[in-house]
Amino acid sequence: MVKHNNVVPNIHCHKKYCESSRGPLKVRLTLNQAGKKKSRRLARAAKAAAIAPRPLKLLRPSVHCQTQRYSAKVRLGKGFTLEELKAAGLTARFARTVGIAVDHRRTNKSAESLATNVARLEEYKTKLIVFPKKRLSKVKNGDSSAEECKAATQFKGVVMPLAKASNEIVMADVPSQDISAFTQMRVARKETKVAGFRCSVANREEK
């Protein structure tokens, strides 16, 4: 008999994964995990070879995480806003053709985020090599030169990753203090501790 006010044990240790009188249990297995990992890797390599020398990944904006708890953290977002593209002198239609992610739903809530992402777009434009629509056609306005197109290589990895903020404390930024707060607290604690003894010694000398 079960003692005390506990939950009545009702565990099922004999799961039937195969066909039975109750029918098959819907158990989802991941025995194809290693095979799927290889399939994804081969698919990425095939796509990169098909679109070469275009990079596999798109340029993403710098955004802040959601909620007050994580808002100080900066990460890569879904796409640039239409306002950011307009400030950088780009259209959404053209940006999608040169490897820039566009998110028409996102809006800018501050001038700082707008300026940061516009600067990110301007930096990307300086590194961008635009091929002509047809490989053997003449170079038109906005296209890169034939020498740049010939020397172009496919970029691998994240396009313009965010720089990680250093957690090291720079001693030059720490204000110097002549008097240490810790020393003051330690001396005050010691004075309080011996104050009674000093009073008794003073009373004894007066007598």
**Strand and helix order:** HEHEHHHHH
Biggest sheet strand order reads 1-2
Structural class comes to mainly alpha
End-to-end Cα distance, whole Å, is 80 Å
Specify the overall morphology. Answer: flat
Quickly count the helices. 7
Radius of gyration: 33 Å
Overall strand count: 2
Beta strand %: under 5%
Average pLDDT figure: 87
Helix content: 40-55%
Uncertain segments are none
Main β-sheet, in a few words?
2 strands, antiparallel
Topology readout:
Blueprint: H1 33-51, E1 62-64, H2 67-70, E2 74-76, H3 82-87, H4 92-97, H5 111-127, H6 146-150, H7 181-206
Antiparallel strand pairs: 1-2
Describe the protein's architecture and organization.
The protein is mainly alpha-helical and about 210 residues long. It contains seven helices and two strands, in the order αβαβααααα. The chain has helices at about 35-50, 65-70, 80-85, 90-95, 110-125, 145-150, 180-205; strands spanning about 60-65, 75. A two-stranded antiparallel ribbon has the order 1-2.
What keyword list fits this structure?
mainly alpha; 207 residues
Quick summary:
By secondary structure, the protein is an all-alpha fold. It has helices at 33-51, 67-70, 82-87, 92-97, 111-127, 146-150, 181-206, and strands at 62-64, 74-76.
